[in-house]
């Protein structure tokens, strides 16, 4: 078992997840509205998608990678529209003073939405490929066990970030009043709309 390869996977997963983009905003928003578990599961949806893209890069699945990159315009359009919809809904949503009951359907929907949203950014494959190369793990010499260990590290590294983020936001949430939560809704909704518009602009260009 190559512990070094696993640790590199952890670094890759954490570094890919940590920059606060639209998924981070969604995770924060769902933690504030529905509690830590909802925020964590939203993040785990993104971590699962990261692991899938890690598989594409780590196992050298060039056919899938080429297809996703070739179709990136249509995929990016779908992602942009999805972000716009989420942003508008968030802008219109009233602040939730108490976390909503964690129903199975709601938790599954939160997980699935961030999973699909992360998959609409196929350029993530190129990010993984570049980081794999930089850290000297671009090739695993055809060793599928080593590649699987690397991908496991990617997933756990990404999941660790979402656990920290949802846990930290959950602690802060108890100190927020409805007025502040209302502004959080407006700000997060506006940011999601901007991300969605930027994705549509990039796809149209």
Low-confidence regions: none
> How far apart are the first and last residues' alpha carbons, in Å?
46 Å
CA gyration radius, whole angstroms: 18 Å
Residue share in β-strands: under 5%
Number of strands: 0
Number of helices: 9
Helix content: over 70%
Broad shape: globular
Judged by helices, strands and strand pairing, the structural class is mainly alpha
> What average pLDDT do the residues reach?
77
Could you state the order of secondary-structure elements as H and E?
Answer: HHHHHHHHH
Can you give a write-up of this model?
By secondary structure, this protein is mainly α. It has one domain. Helix content is 80%, strand content 0%. It contains nine helices and no strands. It has helices spanning 3-17, 22-34, 36-58, 62-70, 72-92, 104-119, 124-134, 144-173, 178-204. The longest helix is centred in the last third of the chain and has 30 residues, at 144-173. The protein starts with a helix and ends with a helix. The model has no long low-confidence stretch (mean pLDDT 77).
């Amino acid at each position: 078992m190559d512990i070094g390869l696993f640790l590199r996977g952890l670094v890759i997963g954490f570094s890919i997840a940590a920059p606060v983009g639209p998924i981070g905003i969604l995770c924060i928003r769902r933690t504030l509205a529905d509690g830590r578990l909802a925020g964590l599961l939203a993040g785990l949806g993104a971590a699962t998608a990261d692991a899938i893209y890690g598989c594409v890069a780590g196992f050298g699945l060039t056919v899938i990678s080429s297809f996703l990159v070739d179709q990136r315009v249509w995929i990016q359009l779908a992602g942009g529209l999805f972000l716009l919809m989420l942003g508008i809904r968030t802008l219109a949503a009233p602040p939730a003073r108490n976390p909503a009951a964690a129903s199975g359907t709601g938790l599954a929907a939160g997980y699935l939405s961030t999973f699909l949203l992360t998959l609409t950014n196929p350029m993530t494959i190129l990010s993984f490929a570049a980081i794999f190369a930089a850290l000297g793990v671009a090739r695993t010499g055809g060793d599928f066990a080593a590649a699987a260990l690397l991908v496991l590290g990617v997933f756990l590294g990404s999941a660790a970030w979402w656990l920290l983020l949802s846990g930290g936001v959950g602690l802060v949430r108890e100190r927020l009043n409805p007025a502040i939560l209302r502004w959080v809704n407006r700000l997060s909704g506006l940011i999601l709309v901007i991300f969605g518009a930027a994705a549509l602009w990039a796809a149209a260009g």
